[in-house]
Every structure is written in C-alpha cells, then in structure tokens.
Amino acid sequence: MKAQGFALMEGADAAALEAIVGKRNVIFHDEERLEPFSHDETAERSYASMPEAVVRPASTAEVSKVMAYASSRRIPVTPRGAGSGLSGGCVPAMGGIVLSLDRMNAILDIDLENLMVVAQPGVVTNSINEALKKHGLWFAGYPMSLETCFLGGNVAENAGGGKAVKYGVTSRYVTGLEVVLASGEVLRLGGKLRKDVTGYDLVHLLVGSEGTLAVITEITLSLMPVPRRKAVLLASFAGAAEAIGAVPRIIREARIVPTSVEYMDRASILASCGYLNESIPYGEAGAMLLLEVEGEGNDEVFANYSAIGGVCEAAGAQSVYVADNRTTMERIWNVRRNIAEALKVRSPRQSLEDVVVPTAAIPAFMEGLLSLAAEEGVQIPCYGHAGDGNLHATVIKPGQWSEEEWARRLHHILERLYRLSNSLGGRISGEHGIGNKRRDFIGINLDPATIALMKGIKAVFDPQAILNPGKIFPE
Ligand SMILES: Cc1cc2nc3c(=O)[nH]c(=O)nc-3n(C[C@H](O)[C@H](O)[C@H](O)COP(=O)(O)OP(=O)(O)OC[C@H]3O[C@@H](n4cnc5c(N)ncnc54)[C@H](O)[C@@H]3O)c2cc1C
Asked: What is the pLDDT of residues 157-169, one digit of tens each?
C-alpha cells in the first residue's frame, strides 16, 4: 500500500487493464513512455508526478470497466486530455493510472435542426469549429489553446478564451454530458436542451470539476452562428491604468460589447514580437488593448470600430490602429496568442498565473502587481483577458536566484499575488483551475465551511477518493 491507502500497481493489474482496452493501449513499467504523462504545460517540474500506468480506452464501456477495476483495487485514476493544462490538473499526483481519452476522438452528431454538436472528449477543440465551418456555426467558448487542447479538458476546466467578454466560457454551451463515475456507473445528464431545471444542475457541477468527480465521455454543446464580418483594433496607451480605464467606457459610452478585449503590457508585446520576428505598431506604448468587433456587414463593423476607436482616443489612447482584413487581423492575434510561449522560451523558469478580479479593480490590481514585483525583485509581465478581469501575471525567475531560493520565494510571491487579487474581490484562478499547483492556496478564497461542503460533494461522487486525488483541496 502507498499514500492514503492506495494500492501499488502490480503486473496482474496491468494484465487486467490490457484485457479491457487491449495490450497496445496500456503502458506499464516503461519509464520513457510514461514520462510524457507525468506533467502538463505548467512550467515548473516540481508539480510533475509519474504514473504507474497509462490506459487508453476507446469507448464509454471501456472507461466504465477500467473505473470498476480501479475501484475494486483502490487504484488512483487521473483523466487526461491533451495535457495542455496550466495547473497540474492531469498530473497523477498519487501515481496509479493516467486515463488518456485521446482515442475517444469522434464528433458523433452535428445537429443542424437543434443547433447542437455531440462529441467525444478526445476531440481537438479546433476540429469542432473546422467541422462546423461549412454550416456557418461555431462553438464560441473555446480557449486560446484550441489547436492542441481537447474538448473534454475544456469542459473539465471550464475553459474560457479571448471571446469570453461577449460569448462567455465553455459552461455556457454545455447542455448535456455522459459521464462515468468512480464506481464505473454511467450517467447521462441533460441533453439537447436549452432549458432544464429537472433536479439539481449536475451538468454544471461537473463542468470545471477538474476530473475529480467523474470521467466525461460525451459532450453536447449548443452552437452559435459565425459572425459575418469582423475587425481588430489595436489601441496604444501610456500605461496599464489608462488602457484598463478605457474598457468600461467602451461598453458604457459606445454601447458595444466587443467580442474580445485583450490586455498586453509592453514586456509581453516585446517578447511575443521578438519571438515571432513580427512588428506591430506599439511605438512608445506602455500597454495595449486588442479589441475585436463584429457585425452583419462592413457598414456595421465600420460603425462599431469607429465608435470604439473614438472612446479609446477620448480615454487617452496614443494611437488606434484598425485591421479589417483577415491577414492583418491574424498577425495581430498571433502576437497575443504567442505571448505565453514567447515568455516561456525566453524564461523557461516561471509561474504563469491567471487571477481574476472584478473588471473595475484591474487598475488597482496592476498597481499592486507593480509594487509587488519591485519589492520582491522579480519581473512579472502581465497580459490577459481585460474584458473579463482575467489576468496572466507571469512571475519570472531571476537568473541569480538559486533553485532553493526560487522555490521558497515563489511560494511567498504567489501567496502575495493571490492575496492581492482576493483583497480586490478576486479569485486565484479564472480559467486554468486549481489542480495541484494552487491547492495549498484555495483557503485564501474559500472559507472552511465552503471547502467542507465541496469535499462532501466529492465524497458522494467518489467515496474512495480514487479520481484525480491530490487536487483542488489542501491535504
Ligand atoms: C499556450 C496555452 C494557451 C492557453 N490558453 C488558455 C485559454 O485561453 N483559456 C483557458 O481556459 N485555458 C487556456 N490554456 C490551458 C489549457 O489549454 C486548458 O485548461 C484546456 O482546457 C485543457 O485541456 P486539455 O485537453 O489539455 O486538458 P488536460 O490538461 O489534459 O487536463 C486538464 C484537466 O481536465 C481533466 N480532464 C481532461 N479530460 C477529462 C475528461 N474526459 N473527463 C474528466 N476530466 C478530464 C484532467 O484530469 C485535468 O484535471 C492554455 C494553455 C496553453 C499551453
């Protein structure tokens, strides 16, 4: 037996799992092939942990049998999508089985009458929108990692991306789920329904549950029409306060909800432009807003971006650049999308955060962040989804700090960062989740009674605590 009474896996366990999913779909006793499943995209390897086995089921029936077997032996099971997570969510913190959903990758039904799509969890998110393109429809809640992440991972994290300010996040589109409980029991919840108040809303309890309550094996999503025309504005400001101050004015004064309101500080822009060998007109800007607007036709788009541009100028923008053709829009979005990767290439030792604060508190947060960085002697470039208060402050390890110093001081800096967002009415994660990375800090946001209630829910779904143990809650 090992930590928390979990069984250590033996050859007989691997044989039993092979009998369920086939020999070639089980990896056991093979360090080299197991290692890629020990981490996600979280930069620091201190959150990594090796699995004892990787199991790749092809159907709900196989997932059910794997769960029933793991339950009978009390072996931990950690569901895994594409492994693009940024909180250690799919890391097998207590060893055991990594349940990789990559073989369950079919789009099962594109329902043009109900405007719904039904898909398996291993579908790459972007391929849903590729398949829907010819019908003029899309799943609008997708994250920026859409070209790599899986739909199951999006649902499990309740991912949200650059269009959340207008279209909301994944949960808004999930109307039905098929899930497998820790016991192996299969539940079908919700359906192709735009309204459903039949009992507790278990669908949306499972959205964002980070693989700790059930394995998601089928997802029903509602669809939206693809906007006909769009344009991107790039507005430069002297600094964070000026840029962020423009955001509520855009909605209040122009009376337009942009599709996207993305914030980039100078360090983030320079890093991404350098990485891509790209130039965008940032001039002397201390901070920039990327705003996307849409409309039925060119006239409506023109009216929308003119109104927004006018408000930006009134709010102190140094310049406003408009991109209304596909190539230039894509060049600008590419700079925004590549900031995380550019900062990671430049400074591999880092901690990418995603605190969320009420939008009106963003300037105060940015001010606090600048002080925190100066006091701690670290660089913390910041970018993110300004339209919904979700900011990717990225703590960079100074070259002169030793490993021991970095580990100790990072914990302290993160605690200060999270307390800063909490003091402004914010939360420690807006989209990346808690996983094992932030679990020791959840008490900053949630009181003991709330945590006890959540643990009670976990115990009802998974009484033996075999599903993704070591996540969300502190030990
Ligand atoms: C460059 C980059 C950009 C990103 N941009 C965004 C962004 O804009 N918005 C955003 O929200 N996130 C973003 N992310 C984070 C990440 O891509 C999302 O959290 C994504 O939803 C994870 O999907 P995945 O398939 O990779 O899941 P994984 O990382 O494999 O797993 C994530 C969690 O989901 C659980 N899980 C996965 N599949 C299932 C299943 N079938 N059943 C139950 N639980 C399951 C896992 O146990 C784990 O807890 C970004 C990441 C990167 C690297």
From this structure: 999 988 999 999 9
Q: Which residues contact 332 (CB under 8 A, 6 or more apart)?
A: 232, 234, 280, 290, 323
Based on the fold, state whether residues 132 and 179 are members of the same structural domain. yes
- Expressed in angstroms and rounded, the spacing between residue 283 Cα and the centre of ligand 1 is 35
Q: What is the mean pLDDT of residues 238-246?
A: 89
Instruction: Tell me the pLDDT tens digit for each residue of 47-81.
Output: 999 999 999 999 999 999 999 999 999 999 999 99
How much is the average pLDDT of 380-399? 94
Q: Which of 67, 84, 264 to mutate to test the pocket of ligand 1 (most atoms within 8 A of CB)?
A: 84
What's the pLDDT score for residue 281? 79
Domain interval for residue 424? 347-445
Q: Are strands 77-80 and 97-100 parallel, antiparallel or unpaired?
A: parallel
Contacts of 4 (CB under 8 A, 6+ apart): 94, 465, 469
d(CA 471, CA 392): 21
**Domain final residue pick, 225, 256, 272:** 225
Contact residues for 7 (Cβ-Cβ < 8 A; gap 6+):
1, 13, 73, 74, 75
The predicted structure's pLDDT at residue 2: 63
Picking from 207, 225, 243, the residue at the C-terminal end of a domain is: 225
Q: From the CA of 336, how far away is ligand 1's center (Å)?
A: 19
- The sheet carrying 26-28 orders its strands as 26-28, 53-55, 97-100, 77-80
CATH number (domain holding residue 335): 3.30.70.2190
Residue 44 falls inside a structural domain: yes
Residue to mutate (ligand 1; options 90, 148, 466; most atoms within 8 A of CB):
90
Average pLDDT score, the chain: 95
Say how many domains are in the chain. 4
Q: For residue range 263-306, list pLDDT tens digits in order.
A: 999 999 999 999 999 888 777 889 999 999 999 899 999 999 99
* Ligand 1 neighbours (beta carbon < 6 A): 40-41, 78-86, 89-90, 101, 121, 143-145, 149-150, 152-154, 156-157, 159-161, 210-211, 215-216, 340-341, 431-432, 468
Q: Which ligand 1 atom sits closest to the C-alpha of 104?
A: 41
Determine which residue's CA is closest to atom 3 belonging to ligand 1: 145
